[in-house]
Amino acid sequence: MSKKFMNYIDGKWCDAKSNERFENRNPARWKEIIGTFPRSSKEDINQAVESARVSFKSWSSMPAPARGAILKKVGDLLTKSKDEIASHMTREMGKVLAETKGDVQEAIDTAYYAGTFTRQLFTYTVPSELPSKFATTVRRPVGVAAVITPWNFPLAVPSWKIFPALACGNTVVWKPAGDTPHTANLFVEILLEAGLPAKVIQLVHGHGSEVGGPLVSHPDVNLISFTGSTDVGQSITRQAGIKKISLEMGGKNAIIVTESANLDLVVDGILWGAFGTTGQRCTATSRAIVHESVRDRLLAMLMNEVKKLKVGNGLEKQVQVGPLINESQFKTVQSYVEIGQSEGAHLLVGGKGDRSEGWFFEPTLFSDVKPAMRISQEEIFGPVLSVLTYKSFDEALEIANTSRYGLSSAVYTQNVREAFLAIEKIDSGITYINAPTIGAEAHLPFGGIKDTGNGHREGGWMAYDFFSEIKTIYVDYSGRLQRAQIDNY
Questions:
Q1: Distance CA 271, CA 444 (A)
Q2: Choosing from 99, 210, 282, 418, which is the catalytic residue?
Q3: Average pLDDT over every residue of 261-287
Q4: Cα–Cα distance between 212 and 216 in angstroms, integer?
Q5: Is 14 a catalytic residue?
Q6: Residue 3 has what DSSP assignment?
Q7: Which one of 50, 99, 248, 418 is the catalytic residue?
Q8: 253-433 maps to which CATH number?
Q9: How far apart are CA 446 and CA 429, in angstroms?
Q10: Could you tell me which residues come within 8 angstroms of residue 21 by beta carbon, excluding any fewer than 6 positions away?
């Protein structure tokens, strides 16, 4: 009999009001059921939001460094449980242990950063234009934060959102991805063990429309932080009204490979960028834009190395590429391989899946891809790399920018002019020089432009701007009426 897991609402582990449940399965062994989870609804959301609203007053009144001490303890507990959590995460979502350990480590780094940052919630004090008057600003928490997170980074991405939200004094209602609910339960258990007051965090499992819709439209939710698809992000914007919203969505990330590039370094970067996490990253390297003079040599090197990649269960040490997350994603990747071939792209390596036990798909390499092709324009979210060719660097920059997305980008070059032109000209929130398009660091801003996001950033100091409000303070000690908005000149 499969294990039954619960929501965490109003300080208690509990089932959904409907008593309905959904299964969580291992994508590497689809017959293996990890457990069942509550299929929640609007009624559960209402209870969670109300509890978070009530607990906001006491939590926001706690001194920020005291909140930081709890977050520091969370980092300690995550460090202690790193290997155990990583093993559960690999079983639940598939990526190899080295990557799930990295996922946990990113949450650890974010916890320690957040714990320290509660002593650095700086604002501005500036001179007043009038005498005997003091002008400053302070940060205030916003209220109840709705946090909606994806399955591909089931601990790191929630930590990017939940830790800054808590550090700033907000309470949180968290809806994790339906494909990775177990990691969410483990995370909440650690938050509580670290001393987080019971009703400050609420965990509500369930399907997107049944839980996400009522959550983002709830009148007592004050801000929303979402990571997921662009289509869902646009739907959230329509439902949420005038709430404060942070959206981190899709990507179609490109690397430019120049004539002077170190091709051995390029191959290493592509293998990690395109096929790490089985390509299931918003920052995955999805396009390689290669100078015509090095194209054939690079393709030969890539084909040789891609064929060596070991696909299998991420819990096995020799495996480098785990399964896709579920049958739907398997079918999506399969369909894009067919689309690429129908459009005239040349399938060099891979292109086949194995669904006998899990949702495994070969690392796949296309050449002769044109900028307008769908495999060059649409986010696949799988282990598929499209190789395009260019003649001039200006053309390469133009191809890189022919995308509705603008998350991550990279250029491999030994030419400093090309490096700085890429920094200046590529339309993206992140640009790497001589490194692949993935590898965010916890203390730096993360996010994109165009259809990737709505201008906010996660990670680093900028996350705290989203999860707090600025209040302006004037103290007039002149003893007389002074009018700042009257012509005093």
A1: 24
A2: 282
A3: 98
A4: 6
A5: no
A6: P
A7: 248
A8: 3.40.309.10
A9: 7
A10: 4, 15, 36, 37, 38, 39
Comma-separated ranges of CATH 3.40.605.10 domains in the chain: 7-249+453-472
Neighbours of 292 (CB within 10 A): 11
Residue at token pair 């294990």 = 3
- Measured between alpha carbons, how far is 362 from 353 in angstroms, rounded to an integer? 6
> Would you state the CATH architecture of domain 7-249+453-472?
3-Layer(aba) Sandwich (3.40)
E-strand ranges in 383-481 read 384-390, 405-406, 408-412, 430-433, 449-450, 468-476
What pLDDT shows up at residue 485?
84
- pLDDT (tens digit per residue) in 18-75: 999 999 999 999 999 999 999 999 999 999 999 999 999 999 999 999 999 999 999 9
Q: What is the pLDDT of residue 489?
A: 73
pLDDT in tens, 238-254: 999 899 999 999 999 99
Q: What is the pTM for the complete model shown? A: 0.97
Pinpoint the residues of the chain covered by CATH 3.40.309.10: 253-433
pLDDT of res. 208: 87
Q: Report the alpha-carbon angle 321-324-325, nearest 5.
A: 130
248 in active site? yes
Task: Give the 3-state secondary structure of residue 258.
Answer: coil
